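note to self — DONT lose this again. spent like an hour looking for the file last time. sequence + predicted structure for the chain T wanted, 252 res
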Amino acid sequence: MSLFESFDLYNILFLDIETVPAVSNFEELPEEMQELWAHKARTVLRRPDAELEFDEIAEAFHTRAGIYAEFGKIICISVGFLTRQADNPEPLLRLKSFSNHMEASLLEDFNELLNKHFNSPDKYALCGHNIREFDVPYICRRILVNQLPFPKMLDIAGRKPWETRHLLDTMEMWKFGDFKNYTSLRLLAALFGFPSPKDDMDGSEVAGVYWEDRDLDRIAAYCEKDVLATAQLFLKMRRQPILREDQVVIVR
């Protein structure tokens, strides 16, 4: 059985996260963290031996810190799962977002969902685009920073690759062993002919929408589109019909 078909479709939780810098501007960081970011910025900007100006360090923090779990935080986790209909053989995708200014509360709610409904790595799977390199490590690191217990699905520290088969990564699946480049979800959406998830904003704009507008609802809607696109891509990879608009339900 191929990896595409190793889990029941109805036992897969599709997910995506949105992250931002931990504070609204560089000067709000504690002094030691400012120093540590200044050092990190040389790597981020690919200028390892340069003496960076303050404005360069601060701008790099604003635009790039959110992708590093040590300097950022999660503001939204959106999930989707397929459910059966009693009177119709076609599945429904139910989308739900956990968004909160308080990261610990968001993570507690997400962990509760995993513990209640997706609590066995042998039976259930998590699926995302670049989930192994970004989403799951970021969530795990922030769980630890917030001193929360790990649900079984995320208790993966030190595990071998074959012990984390429940982490289905559509980007890895598309590579087929080719590790030369990154293939975006937007590109694969265009290739396979389903709507792009990037019709409102892109990832580079999330921090501004959050820290300037504090608009969690807009960010959650954006994150849910990524989850829907991931589910559509996974269905294409299984050579199954994609979902129509009437097969998608948003749960608030």
